[in-house]
Design goal:
Layout (H helix, E strand, L loop, with lengths): L3 E7 L1 H21 L5 E7 L3 H8 L6 E11 L8 E6 L9 E9 L3 H11 L5 E9 L12 E5 L5 E2 L15 E6 L2
Parallel strand pairs: 2-3, 2-5, 5-6, 6-7
Antiparallel strand pairs: 1-9, 3-4, 8-9
The structure holds 1-O-pyrophosphono-5-O-phosphono-alpha-D-ribofuranose (PRP) and guanine (GUN).
The site of 1-O-pyrophosphono-5-O-phosphono-alpha-D-ribofuranose has 15 residues, from strand 2, strand 5 and helix 3.
């Protein structure tokens, strides 16, 4: 890890207030669409904290499942290959799937994961991300719910790491590298 310090980007209070708003919209959407079997899928490891706070505010029956995806650089960004390292434990055929993600950057992870899950014939697949960096996007991803749109800064906290540190912070911070 390079010498660095953190600057708060989104406070813990703002994170929680936004999650309450997202949960309200998500509850409304799945009630409106008469959802009977909702599976909330968290992408590990980054989404664990967001997932825990979000599902507590959902007011319809939900299953919770997790998936670990990993991307391997093959020289250029555009040929990045995303693999499933740990698959879901349960079946999603005929169910509504809500993918919960911490951050979307290039979009490779979510476009590949949603493509793979759609092959399993779920009733629907929707995406909720806490953070979105649209300026970094390389592949298009349909995202239903975005917590915060952020500039192209390296962020940590609330599940998101720098060399596996800072996932436990209850707020989002920018990493400032000290030269
Ligand atoms: O839009 P993309 O460019 O594909 O990047 C976004 C992905 O990168 C991060 O995961 P990371 O590989 O750091 O794993 P982690 O969740 O275990 O921290 C993040 O959690 C997303 O899954
Ligand atoms: N830790 C971390 N991982 C990322 N992956 C994509 N963007 C980011 C970021 O800002 N921080």
């Amino acid at each position: 890890m390079k010498k660095h310090h953190l600057n708060t980007l989104i406070s813990a209070e703002d994170v929680q207030n936004r999650i309450a708003e997202l949960a309200k919209e998500i509850n409304h959407d799945y009630h409106y669409n008469h959802s009977k079997d909702l599976v909330v899928v968290g992408l590990l490891r980054g989404s664990f904290m967001f997932m825990a706070d979000l599902v507590r505010q959902l007011d319809l029956p939900v299953e919770v499942d997790f998936l670990t995806a990993s991307s391997y650089g093959t020289g250029t960004e555009s040929s990045r290959d995303v693999k499933i390292l740990k698959d879901l434990d349960g079946d999603i055929c005929g169910k509504d799937v809500l993918i919960v993600e911490d951050i979307i950057d290039t979009g490779f992870t979510l476009s590949k994961v949603s493509e793979i899950l759609k092959l399993r014939e779920p009733r629907s697949v929707k995406i909720c991300t806490l953070l979105d960096k649209p300026s970094r996007r390389e592949v298009e991803v349909d995202v239903e719910w975005v917590g915060f749109t952020i500039p192209d800064e390296f962020v940590v906290g609330y599940g998101i790491d720098y060399a596996q540190h800072y996932r436990n912070l209850d707020y989002i911070a920018k990493v400032i590298i000290e030269e």
